[in-house]
Design a protein that fits this description.
With about 300 residues, the chain is α/β, with parallel strands linked by helices. The protein is built from eight helices and nine strands. It has two domains: about 1-30 and about 135-280, no CATH class; about 30-125, no CATH class. About 40% of the residues lie in helices and about 15% in strands. Strand 4 and strand 5 (about 105-120) form a beta hairpin. Helix 1 (about 1-20) crosses helix 6, helix 5 packs across helix 6 (about 220-240) and helix 6 (about 220-240) packs antiparallel against helix 7 (about 245-260). The protein starts with a helix and ends in a 15-residue tail after the last helix.
Length: about 300
């Protein structure tokens, strides 16, 4: 497996250095990208990435977001106690100055601004457009099924709904229905991602206590996302489905690196922890210190 780990890590780093395509959700296609509930416009850039991840983290069914005022204008309201999410944008301003000759000139300057939005699931009395759900049929991949079935101390896996996530307090992996994934590769890559998260539980590799608060976007959260996606990439490589998943993995990692100040060295650090996680899932367990291979 050492060679597989090195090959996958090198491929991801090469794609990060070359620039990556925008990350996409492996289930739901275009019907999963975050949109504004009023304008119907898709959010772009880092806004799209953050809102999509927040939707998964929060377990929101809706992909629609709106401001406090937009919710009120549509006859509804934001539920008491709900927290907003900032959406950033650049606004251009014209400023008049004088050049060296004393002549007036105009200069356009960008200023970073933001406004706050809420997911439609955080609101009451707000009606959003109904998206047609996509359904796909595909055959399970034997190599991937065996990896999942043979994982030691595997957490409970619940399929249903439209979001994927690992719930540390319950030690449960939640996955969307398989029919929402256009391909088997996309399903297993997402499942491997969540199973890698599960290896961090204190009863396994103990990367982080399950009772620790998870704050979306902070350093600890972002670093764990890198570990999970690297672990998923390693497991995909082991199962022989790397060509269909490596590009998306690199794009996903690139999004989190931007949160972590684009420090590419973090990929190497994440890869080390991801290797231990992948080994655990494949049956090569580690002691709880996360450093020493256990005797099996």
């Amino acid at each position: 497996m050492a060679d597989v780990y090195e090959i996958i890590t090198e491929q991801i780093i090469k794609r990060l250095e070359a620039g990556t395509v925008p990350w996409h959700c492996p289930w739901g296609g275009r019907n999963s990208m975050p949109r504004n509930a009023v304008s119907q416009a898709e959010y772009r850039g880092i806004n799209s990435f953050i809102l999509h991840q927040l939707r998964l983290n929060g377990g929101y069914e809706s992909r629609y977001w709106l401001t406090f005022k937009q919710a009120k204008d549509r006859g509804g309201h934001v539920r008491k106690g709900e927290k907003s999410t900032p959406v950033i944008f650049w606004k251009w301003y014209d400023r008049e100055e004088k050049n060296n000759a004393g002549e007036p000139t105009k200069q356009r300057l960008p200023v970073l601004r933001y406004y706050s939005v809420f997911n439609a699931d955080q609101c009451e009395g707000v009606t959003t457009p109904q998206d047609d759900s996509e359904s796909h049929e595909w055959e399970p991949l034997t190599a991937c099924e065996q990896i999942v079935e043979r994982m030691p101390d595997r957490p409970e896996i619940r399929e249903g709904g439209v979001v994927a996530g690992y719930v540390p307090a319950e030690d449960v992996v939640r996955m969307p229905l398989r029919s929402r994934f256009p391909s088997a590769e996309g399903f297993y890559a997402s499942l491997f991602h969540e199973l890698t998260h599960a290896t961090g539980h204190e009863t396994r590799l103990n990367r982080r206590p399950s009772t620790d608060p998870r704050t979306f976007g902070d350093d600890a959260y972002s670093r764990e996302e890198l570990v999970a996606e690297m672990g998923a990439a390693f497991l995909c490589g082991h199962a022989g489905i790397t060509p269909d998943t490596i590009e998306n993995a690199a794009s996903y990692i690139d999004g989190w690196l931007s949160v972590l100040r684009a420090d590419s060295r973090l990929v190497i650090q994440a890869a080390a922890q991801a290797q231990k996680a992948a080994d655990f899932i494949l049956g090569r367990t580690w002691d709880n210190d996360g450093e020493t291979p256990a005797k099996v």
